[in-house]
Fold this protein.
Amino acid sequence: MSPVLSQAGSCVQDPCLAVAGYVPGIAAHDMSWETLMFEAHGQRAEVRVPRLTPTQLETVAATVRAAAQGVLASMPVMEVVGIIDRVVLRMLDTNHPDRQEIDRLLPIISGFDPEMTRLGINASLKAFRRHQSLRFLVEDFGDPGLLDGFRPRAKGGWTRACGPSLLAHVWAGNVPGLPLWSLVSGMLVKAGNIGKVSSDEPLFASWFARVLAEIEPRLADALAIVWWPGGETALEQVFCRQADVLKVYGGEAALAAWQRQLPAGKRMLAHGHKFSAGLVSAAALDTRQARLTARQAAMDMVRWDQQGCYSPQVFYVERGAQVSPQEFACHVAGEMTALQHSFPRRALSLEETRAVAGWRQGLGLQQLRGGQIELLGPADAPWSLAYIDTPEGARPGALNRTACIVAVDTLDEAVRWLGSQQAFLQTVGLAAGPEELFRLASLLAQAGATRICALGSMTTPDAGWHHDGRFSLLDLVRMVDIETSAEQAAEALASYRD
Amino acid sequence: MTKADTVAPHLATDILADLLGFMNRPDAGADEFNDLALRLFAHQFQHNLAFQRYCRQQGKTVRTVRHWHDIPAVPINAFKDLTLSCVPPDVCERVFMTSGTTRADSRGRHYHPHLQVYDQSMKLHFAARFMREAKRMRMGILFPTEEMMPNSSLAHYLALARDAFGAEGSEYFVTPEGMDIHRLCETLEQVEHEGKPYALLGASYSFVHLMDEMQQQGRVFALPPGSRILDTGGFKGQSRELAMDEFYRQLGASFGVPASACINMYGMTELSTQFYDDGNATQPSVKSGPHWIRSRTVDPLTGNDVPAGERGVLTHCDLANFNSVITILTEDVGVSVDGGFLLLGRAEGAQAKGCSMAMDAFLQAAAG
């Protein structure tokens, strides 16, 4: 839900109150505060957020940078992993009052179904337990000790990895928990982290910061969570000037705007809008499998109401199995109806409703012009599917549980269609046999996909995944080499030299 | 005699006579509106096969539509994709096309077998809402002529305004070379001197360009009392965007015409009737139409009315659309209020909040 202005005459009483943001080094009474209002599920929430001046933002950045250099940089990476583990464990503790408050507030702020939110948050948090973080590190570094000091290289010389002193994050508010990925990445490479939360979801990152400060007070100043409404150029310029590396999630326009403000020579890591798809092989469409496959496809659409980059917007379904693509589409429709009971779709804004209506109208008009299109379900259903009987390019849905299910003769054909969106393609959820998996994976890799997973797992990427095909940790660091010559030259100057 | 007279059955000549009569009687009641709407719907259902297919797709036929509320609202995009006309397009006297896109085949088309109804609709309502007590006024038009833009409904509308209501000396200030600001300023000086009320009419963005230019030259005018301004269409990315209250404040400062005498017209290529407000002293102003058009604010998915006071998408039932479809679903967001509706702007595609791509961004990417 976008923040709404409080409306006179609202029947909802006693809003839940919360404070977001985490600003070390500046007293609360020295900052000005604004209130973001949210309303969903018949409840209201008022979230107070600090509004820093450019000078205050400079101060916070300097505080975080200094704390990271003074404490975090000299902390063994295994200790950092342990701290994150304790923080995450605490956030997973549903008996803790903080977690209970989050479980109460996030559904109001995001509009998402409370149970879906709870499960989604747990899934995100679980990816950062100790063993997962280790996997994350090994994925990128092989030897995580590279982050602690120079490590010998097999062919001679030494190397270490240095994180940025200040990593600045700009988060989108689409999926609660999203800031965890980049925050934890920043901590693992021992960066000072300063993150700007979105007005749509200011709470989750702030919660992480507060728990961290409580669990490990030595790191209390090494992280800041700030907020301002988009387009505040003065603050954005401070942010860009202070950051060593800037990580931005958002649409093309937002990414371009940040890139323009970033001083030359500084790195920006961008995660722009993406497009994901599901592929269903004939192997997954016998009478026994088809219903399960349909349920998995439906779950991928339902989770976070398709607000994630990894959420499927189109499904290509192979003909020739016991269950036809059209029957499969009907199965998915049935599952969408059933899942509405367990995980109701959040209330849509008028703009979102219009997007869905426009999408349906476009398909309806195409049908009138002779297109082989069938719109499934009533117009006012909290989901919308279109079955398309002729293969066509990867047409996006309208988000919020909408998708086209397209029949194809072979999945190879589907991969070709997906290839037309190479620049945007991210995750492909696949229901296929083992030989097909590896054969199609090669084709999908060529078509631009960066992640292939099981249908049903599209919204829960593995820890250590290569988000948009990049290295989450390695992209943040600067590698420093001691070359063999330096070592040899030093030997020549040793006190014990011959 | 128009070309279309040869296909008289499709023209609904009997309904037309009643329609024109109805438009001339401001006291006509809701029942009469409903009867005419249902007759026009039945006519369009019968003679416009694309519309009939659309109705059937929506599960609506002549038998199930009992009230003008039930008539399927056709999304304005359908004017791009379908031929919405009861008579063959090639016998139409005029086709108005939507602007805003460079690809000709994706422009919406509104077919008019003749302009008798369109013109009567425009003149009756323009007289009541813009001219008021005045029969004719000297006018300056900040828009291309009909000859320059033969498919623009706005160009026709403004030509009609000048021909039917313009006093001697009314003229266009947009030529194929652009806006003739020099000549316009000379004219306004003369008008100031003569002291007779003057009317400036044009696209909202033309006024912005004009005011920017005047500001650079350091010019302001104080047009005589009774002068008025009509702007329409918003800024459409053609000029800098201005908040509406700021726009009317600047108009006041530049021309000496108070916001209360600045009328905004809300019209669409897909309609044959326009809406006006009664001045813009307060924002947002209430828009309303004549008795032959009725508007609702609906949920765009279900087509049901939204609760009173809530934002919805505007849908209009315009009886003057006798040849195309009388009920259209716009992309404009509004709120119904006493005496009309507040226009709150266009419902842009939903902004993607995060990293999942919204359709608009996708289409832009595909086009770019």
